[in-house]
Amino acid sequence: MKVLKHLLLVCFPLLIFAQNKVDVYKISYDQYMNGKETNTTRTIFYQDQIVYFSKAEAKSQQFIDLKNNKSISTILFDNQIYKKEMAIDSLPRPRVEDDTQFILGYPCKHASFSYFSNKIDVWYTEKSLAKGTPHSSYLPNSNALVLKMIFNGNQTLIATSIEKVKNYKPTHNFLQNSQLVNSAEFEEIIIKSRYNRLIVFDNEILNFDPNRMLPKESELVTDKVYHFSKGSVIIKKIKITPEMKASASVFAKVTCKSNGDAYDRTGSVFVMPAKKDMSKTLLEAYLYGLEKLPVFTDNNGNQYQGIKKEKGYAPPIEILRFYTSFGVNYFNDKRKINNYNWADDVVYKGDVTSLIPIDEDEIWIGVFIGNYDSGGHIISLELDSYPSIEEKENNTQSKYIDPLFLTVNTLEMSGQNYGGLFNNDTLAIDFEITENIKNLSLLYTSTGHGGWDGGDEFTPRMNKIYVDGNEVFKIIPWRTDCATYRLSNPASGNFKDGLSSSDLSRSNWCPGTLTSPYIISLSNLKKGKHHLEVVIEQGANEGASTNHWNVSGVLIGDIEKTQIN
User: Fold this and answer.
1) 0.70 cut: is pTM over it?
2) Are residues 559 and 435 in contact, defined by beta-carbon separation less than 8 angstroms?
3) Other beta carbons less than 10 A from residue 511's beta carbon
4) What's the distance, Cα to Cα, between the start and end of the chain in Å?
5) Across all residues in the chain, what is the average pLDDT?
6) Burial of 193 (0-12, 13-18, 19+ CB in 10 A)
7) Phi and psi (nearest 5°) for 289?
8) CA–CA distance, 238 with 200 (Å, rounded to integer)
């Protein structure tokens, strides 16, 4: 009897533990797209009326707490855990359909959801000990286990197994020290967590300041902002981050507002190599003056400094061309019009993946806005690097970037001439391809200027490009959508006919917009020397009013490397 009592005392805690032990179920799903398996598996875990959607080590976690009728999402971002909570009753509600299916031996009912113009069909059982859904927004009821989902008829998730597992560690610790935010704030944090931002310029002023002192070349360091050309240019040497090198795409984002300048101005974001063994760049001219640049002389004897590639010199790589608005922000309160809700600023964002030399460790990046106003403009610039969604295969290619010409005169305030050569000459460039290039293309950006009624800003003009004597491209660059951006242009004048100056159609630009490049395929070009010519039917000048064209051309592609086995 004493032995029996002793055994009970020893075993009773074990019996209690066994009775209190809660089973953990793992439900695995295979994914199909248009009927084809994607080799992607999704898993959820169910334990003690809580559904877990991801592994314990993940930076983001999702839970459905069936006990407390909550759907909970958490994310770790910038060393802070953020949390969003929603009542399960607030999730999309289903419509029960008539048909049924058997999945993994369970009888399954059919329910459908309609959400954001999407149709989601689910098949679920109420006979399983496990509960949950592979998508946290679609749970027919708290007693359901979803075993199949079809999104818009072409994407399918179907359960392949339900099994008990050991050693799964619930992530309750992720709910500790978390900051509760609302749904809108949480969605913003999720988006920001998915890509990497490199802040290049933060609210820098580009203005006309003839007394601004130039830095010395020996003083130039990484990650410091420098102003050149009487304040109209800012540049900074930045490090190419590992995230940028590994990214699938890179976007440049410029935010701009007036700090006193009322007019629409040419803006350019450009890149220059930082290696000392590279060709001469515009940086030398910023530091020491225009005489450091090679000069092109047109048929009328006019001189243009540093506008095309020559031996020992490479023009900048223009990655964005933008045009400032008529005075957004600064003039909002000075030009109040009923039902005209002026924008706070203008944001320009473009894909520059093919133009960022990620093979380099450091590059110079700059922004130019041509203006003669002491207040000028306030700009910010960031580079956003987005990772690849799919795993990259071993890449035997590297990026090819070769800037051929740029007539945007970023040294305008230091005397650099406008690109007005096309009324008497063409822009001709000799270049050589020394490697095997796949997908070779020319990115060509063109905008016309001459701001009177008959000027090239307001007159359609033909552009043609010839390579080795053959016409490869022709277009009349023209924008008819400028009126779309009226609310970014508070200082724009209003005419007697009811139009605003910012409404008028222009030669491939509008006040407050980005001008994207044309992509010209040159895939037939082989290794060797070539000749390119830009021909524009530029109009005649009228007295002191002159026409000119801002054009840029950059060869891009992939360098094919020999793969060594």
Assistant:
1) yes
2) yes
3) 27
4) 77
5) 91
6) middle
7) 110, 165
8) 8
